[in-house]
Amino acid sequence: MNNPPSNLQHKPLPPAAASAPPQQQPRRSLPYIIALSFLVFIFAGGIIVLLVWLVARPHKPVYSVVSAAVHHYNLTADRDGRLTADFNFTVKAFNPSKRVSTHYEALNAQLFFGDEQIASSRAAAFRHPGRSVRYVPLFLPAKNVTLYGNTAREFKRERSAGKVELVVKLKGRVRFQTGAWKSHHHRIKVTCKPAVMSYSSDSFNEVKCHVDF
Predict the structure, then answer these.
(1) How do residues 145-203 score in pLDDT, each as one tens digit?
(2) What's the pLDDT tens digit per position in 90-116?
(3) Rounded-to-integer distance, Cα 123 and Cα 108, Å
């Protein structure tokens, strides 16, 4: 019997390649897991704070000066007059936020005639609940304060006319709270002008204030 042509002979199959062992996923180290968990916690906390802020966003408080009085007034007659007086104001504060209370940790009061400060004091810290009105009494004593040149003359002129225009300024730090959440500190500035002090009557026209955060 004739042998089949060589080109028709079956070639031997190559040996089966050994299958590669499955690669193992690298194991995460403990510091990596802790760092990742911390980042997730911070991110989730930030989202919660943002949602709380958007839902219960505090509104600017509304301020006005509702009464004013002066006692023990004296201004010396020399060119640079020396002013002594006890100024009393009542500031009305309204918190329009429904769910947010305001904590005033410090509130400094200043009294100006023109650009010159003539008295200052510090109001006690207080908490202001939402949708409520708070009356803040201010006692601003001027003790032998020098009014220079034109300032002294202008003060005497207005005093002789029976009314003096003053500016009340409040500066302080506040925090907002809703439930267990408290915000970081915010600086607040309140400017009330002109607060017209009348020497001829007890009447006083309420003065609206400008509020800045």
Answers:
(1) 999 889 999 999 999 999 999 999 999 999 988 888 788 898 999 999 999 988 877 78
(2) 999 999 998 889 999 889 999 999 999
(3) 6
Segments making up each domain of the chain, as ranges: 30-59, 62-212
Spatial distance between the Cα atoms of 134 and 64, rounded to a whole number of angstroms = 11
Phi, psi of 201 (to 5 degrees): -155, 170
User: Which residues have C-beta within 8 Å of that of residue 41, sequence separation ≥ 6?
Assistant: none
The H or E element spanning position 168 is: strand 163-178
The hierarchical CATH code for the domain 62-212 is: 2.60.40
Beta strands per DSSP E along 36-128 = 62-75, 82-95, 101-113, 116-123, 126-128
| Assigned token pair, 83 | 């002013």
The residue written with tokens 């002789």 in the block is 160
Q: Say how far apart CA 68 and CA 109 lie, in whole Å.
A: 14
Rounded distance, CA 131 to CA 99, Å?
A: 8
Q: Where does residue 179 fall: left (phi above 0), alpha (psi -120 to 50 degrees), or beta otherwise?
A: left
